[in-house]
Amino acid sequence: MGQSHYLSAKQNFKFTGPEIVAFIMPLFRLETNVPRSKITPEFLDLTTTVMAETLGRGKEYCMAEVISPHITQVWSTNLSVLVPVLHGGSDISSYNPGLVRNTNLSVLVPVLHGGSDLSSYNPGLVRNTNLSVLVPVLHGGSDLSSYNPGLVRNTNLSVLVPVLHGGSDLSSYNPGLVRNTNLSVLVPVLHGGSDLSSYNPGLVRNTNLSVLVPVLHGGSDLSSYNPGLVRNTNLSVLVPVLHGGSDLSSYNPGLVRNTNLSVLVPVLHGGSDLSSYNPGLVRNTNLSVLVPVLHGGSDLSSYNPGLVRNTNLSVLVPVLHGGSDLSSYNPGLVRNTNLSVLVPVLHGGSDLSSYNPGLVRNTNLSVLVPVLHGGSDLSSYNPGLVRNTNLSVLFCMAEVIPDVLLSWKGSTAPAGNAMLLCIGLMGPEDNQRHAAALSEHVFKHLGIPKDRLLIEFNDVKDSDVGFNGMTVDALGLFKK
């Protein structure tokens, strides 16, 4: 018969109240002579989805169980980005609740090195702008009040421009340029505070730039750029010109032609060209942003090449301030997880082994949550945040017992004996709908004909289900 490997509350998550009861009902159990190799996690996941749709109860009230020594149910959570926990190990309750509820953030802003919360952000800015990433506050702890409010309201920014080290605002930008151009990132203002009037207007109108090129330190226009480069390359960000005012001829032409770069790497502070980058890294990886080189001018050779080649990274992890490479990452985590951003390694250089393995393997995360400095799991997160986020958690139970010795109508061809167990949501019309949906689903994925599948519907009273030393009706937690 096999061994049960269903995802239980005790094994992976801590639930109380209704969530526990949800792990009991409803249940779709199928005994079949179809071989075990056909009972995939994808099939079971789809089964729970079909159950939720036909029962009309919602996925949060459904479960999934697998009876097989080799199959486990996938526990799916749609998280865009879990919030990095403060450096002191605090949970999310210290974040500004208004910020979380009113803003579509793909990444919440890392808290300043001093452990400050988000209260120093300009609330008006957050509410009125669709930000994919909020701008890290300057090292000096300045808030965003120095940004030009008019600029923020009228522009679709994916990332707000970090304020210059001197704290200048954006008032020196050319307003006409901002209104007429689709910028994903506004150009950092020159160290001298020059505006954009020195840009070549023709270039701006004819090129789809997600980020305008920072003007040379000497205030030169773009005429020194290689025209062929601009016309023949789809650049989301043009390369900042070297500090010495050189044009792009010193760039590695092969790099530009062979790589789809959404952002070209800012040149090192010493004015070096891109020849010091690891060519293999650039050619073999689809990078949306190349990692800024460390302040000490190190190239990318210190990255773990294996990590780069085997992972689809939208942003490579900035190397720690001490210059550590990525060798401290858990290789298994990288290979098995679709990461849009790799988690910065803890300041102490810890690897990812302190993550909750169940969470990492079974969850589609666009950004993995940095683990608390003490290595805590996610139980310390603010439950209210989870409830108010777009989470689809599958609780449906689909139990499949394969390789059954089963003969029907004088044949051992694919057949099955199934049961749908539920508290309520049963009846003549309901059962007809359940039978149609489940029979079609099983036939489509397992090849069991509808006339060789028998389904028994079992409406269980809540007084007939026990949990935690009481019946469900006495607990008053599960209502029809």
From TrEMBL:
Give the catalysed reaction(s), semicolon-separated: 3-phenylpyruvate = enol-phenylpyruvate; L-dopachrome = 5,6-dihydroxyindole-2-carboxylate
What span is annotated as the signal peptide, if there is one?
A: none
Q: Where in the cell is it found?
A: Secreted
UniProt EC number: 5.3.2.1, 5.3.3.12
Q: Which Pfam families match?
A: MIF (PF01187)
Q: Which UniProt keywords apply?
A: Cytokine, Isomerase, Secreted
GO cellular component terms, semicolon-separated:
extracellular space
- The kind of enzyme this is, by top-level EC class, is isomerase
Q: Which InterPro entries match?
A: Macrophage_inhib_fac, Tautomerase/MIF_sf
What are the protein's GO molecular function terms? cytokine activity; dopachrome isomerase activity; phenylpyruvate tautomerase activity
* Family classification: Belongs to the MIF family.
Tell me what this protein is called: L-dopachrome isomerase
Provenance organism: Timema bartmani
